[in-house]
C-alpha cells in the first residue's frame, strides 16, 4: 500500500473483523479512523467474554490452516508466535451411537451406511475438487447435488441433518454453491493422512482484536464501544444514539444488511434498501457450558440424529487445553434457527433447561452437578441464507450516497462467512480507498 498525500477520515460502523481490518490497514497508512460498535466488546460474531480471567468466544471459533488472510494479518501485527495449530478429532452422533470421522479409515468403518454408500460418500471429496466453475452449481440445491453424488441414504444419514440443523425449514432451498464451498474449505485443512488440523490464537480472538485496536489508537484513531449508530445522512455522516453526528470523508457499514438498510432508509431511495432486505438470515442460539468434567474426547461432534435440536456439540477444551480456563471444560451447543421461532426467544434459564435433557440422553453419565456455570448467546443475523442464484441479489459495495459503502459477510459469495474472509474484505477495501485517494 502507498502512503497518502493528505489525511483522510473514515467512519466505520461495526467492530467485527471486517471493520477492524479495514480500520487497521487504513490507520497504518495514515488515515484518521473512527470505529463505532454497539456492543461492549469488539469482534462481532467472534466477540468474547471472560472465563476464569481468559477470553472465550461467545460462539465457537477456529481457523483453518489454509486461512491465509488472517495469518498474514497476524504476521503483519508481529504476533506470529500467537498462532496455535493443533490436530482435532471429529465425530458424529447418529442413532444413539458415536462415530469417529477424522480419517478415510473412519469413513470406511461407518456402519450406518452400506459399504457401497460409504464409498460413494468418499466421492464427495472428489466432486468438490472437480468443480472448476462454481457458477454451474447455482442452478441446483445442495440436497439434489449431494443425492446425485452419494445417494439418498448417504444424504439422509450424513448431510440432511446438518443442512436442517443449519438452516431449519429453509434447508431444502440452500444452494449447492454454499455446501461445495464449505467442503472445499474444510478439505483444505487436512493433512496427508486425512487428519484435520485447525488453528487458534493464543489468548483467543479477543486478543487479536485488541492488538488491532491498539494499532488503530496508536495511529490516532478512535474505537467507540457501546455506542450504536442509528442513522447515516445524505452527506454520509453518521448519527450516534445520543444524536451526536460524526462527519468523515468516507463511511463504511459492516453491519448485517437489514441493519444497513435501516441506517440508510432516510437517506436513500426505497428501492435500494428493499434490495438490501432481499438477503435473508438465520439466527443462532449458542449455549456455553463450563463443566467440571469432559463429555468426550471429540472436539467437533456433528449431531445427525433427527431427534436432537443441536447441529453440533463442540468441546472447545479438546482443542484449546482446559488449563487455559483453570481446569474448566468448555462445551458449546449450537442451534441455528429463524428468529421468529419460539425457541429463539427463550430466556437463558429456559434454554438451559431445554438443552440439558438432550445432553443427558447423549451422555448418560452426565449430571447437572457437572455444570459450574453456563451462558446463552444469541445472534439474529448469524448466517445469510444462500439460495439458488444468490449472486443475483447480492448488493453492490457502493451505495447511492457517493461516499458511503457496505462491506458485509453476505457479499463475499461464493465464499461463506468467516474471520478469514472478513479480514480479506477489510484489507481489499482499504487498498481500494488508498489507491483512489493517491491518484
In the CATH hierarchy, the architecture of the domain at 9-86 and 204-279 and 394-438 is 3-Layer(bba) Sandwich
CATH topology of the domain at 9-86 and 204-279 and 394-438: FAD/NAD(P)-binding domain
CATH superfamily of the domain at 9-86 and 204-279 and 394-438: FAD/NAD(P)-binding domain
Please summarize the sheet with the most strands: 7 strands, mixed
The helix fraction, in percent, is: 25-40%
Your description of this structure?
The chain is an alpha/beta fold and 439 residues long. Among the domains are: 199 residues, FAD/NAD(P)-binding domain (3-Layer(bba) Sandwich); 69 residues, no CATH class. 33% of the residues lie in helices and 23% in strands. It contains eleven helices and 20 strands. The strands form five sheets. A seven-stranded mixed β-sheet has the order 8-7-16-17-18-15-19, sandwiched between helices. A hairpin with a 4-residue loop joins strand 12 and strand 13. Helix 4 crosses helix 5. It is globular. The two termini are 13 Å apart. The relative contact order is 0.19. The mean pLDDT is 93.
Amino acid at each position: 500500500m502507498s502512503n497518502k498525500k493528505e489525511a483522510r477520515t473514515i467512519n466505520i460502523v461495526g467492530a467485527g473483523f471486517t471493520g477492524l481490518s479495514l480500520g487497521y490497514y487504513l490507520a497504518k497508512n495514515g488515515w484518521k479512523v473512527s470505529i463505532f460498535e454497539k456492543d461492549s466488546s469488539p469482534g462481532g460474531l467472534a466477540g468474547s467474554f471472560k472465563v476464569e480471567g481468559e477470553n472465550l468466544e461467545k460462539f465457537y471459533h477456529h481457523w483453518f490452516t489454509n486461512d491465509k488472510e488472517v495469518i498474514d494479518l497476524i504476521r503483519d501485527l508481529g504476533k506470529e508466535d500467537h498462532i496455535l495449530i493443533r490436530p482435532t478429532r471429529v465425530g458424529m452422533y447418529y442413532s444413539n451411537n458415536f462415530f469417529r470421522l477424522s480419517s478415510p479409515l473412519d469413513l470406511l468403518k461407518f456402519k450406518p451406511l452400506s459399504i457401497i454408500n460409504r464409498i460413494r460418500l468418499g466421492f464427495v471429496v472428489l466432486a468438490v475438487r472437480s468443480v472448476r466453475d462454481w457458477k454451474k452449481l447455482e442452478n441446483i440445491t445442495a440436497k439434489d447435488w449431494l443425492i446425485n453424488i452419494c445417494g439418498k441414504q448417504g444424504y439422509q444419514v450424513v448431510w440432511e441433518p446438518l443442512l436442517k440443523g443449519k438452516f431449519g425449514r429453509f434447508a431444502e432451498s440452500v444452494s449447492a454453491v454454499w455446501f461445495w464451498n464449505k467442503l472445499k474449505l474444510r478439505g483444505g485443512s487436512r493433512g496427508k493422512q486425512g487428519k484435520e488440523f485447525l488453528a487458534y490464537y493464543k489468548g483467543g480472538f479477543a486478543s487479536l482484536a485488541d492488538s488491532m485496536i491498539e494499532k488503530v489508537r496508536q495511529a490516532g484513531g478512535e474505537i467507540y464501544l457501546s455506542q450504536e449508530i442509528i442513522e447515516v445522512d445524505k452527506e454520509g455522516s453518521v448519527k450516534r444514539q445520543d444524536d451526536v453526528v460524526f462527519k468523515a470523508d468516507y463511511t463504511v457499514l459492516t453491519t448485517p444488511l437489514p441493519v444497513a438498510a435501516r441506517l440508510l432508509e432516510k437517506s436513500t431511495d426505497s428501492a435500494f434498501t428493499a434490495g438490501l432486505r432481499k438477503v435473508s438470515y438465520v439466527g443462532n442460539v449458542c449455549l456455553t457450558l463450563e463443566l467440571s468434567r469432559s463429555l468426550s474426547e471429540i472436539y467437533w461432534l456433528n449431531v445427525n440424529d433427527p431427534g436432537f435440536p443441536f447441529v453440533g456439540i463442540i468441546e472447545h477444551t479438546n482443542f484449546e487445553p482446559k488449563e487455559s480456563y483453570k481446569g474448566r471444560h468448555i462445551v458449546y451447543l449450537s442451534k441455528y434457527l429463524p428468529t421468529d421461532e419460539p425457541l429463539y426467544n427463550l430466556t437463558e434459564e429456559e434454554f438451559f433447561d431445554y438443552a440439558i435433557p438432550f445432553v443427558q440422553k447423549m451422555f448418560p453419565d452426565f449430571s447437572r452437578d457437572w455444570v459450574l456455570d453456563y451462558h446463552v448467546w444469541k445472534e439474529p443475523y448469524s448466517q445469510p441464507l444462500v439460495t439458488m442464484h444468490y449472486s443475483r441479489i447480492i448488493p453492490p459495495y457502493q451505495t447511492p450516497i457517493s461516499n458511503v459503502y457496505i462491506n458485509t459477510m453476505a457479499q463475499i459469495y461464493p465464499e461463506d462467512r468467516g474471520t478469514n474472509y472478513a479480514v480479506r474484505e477489510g484489507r481489499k477495501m482499504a487498498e481500494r480507498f488508498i489507491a483512489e485517494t493517491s491518484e
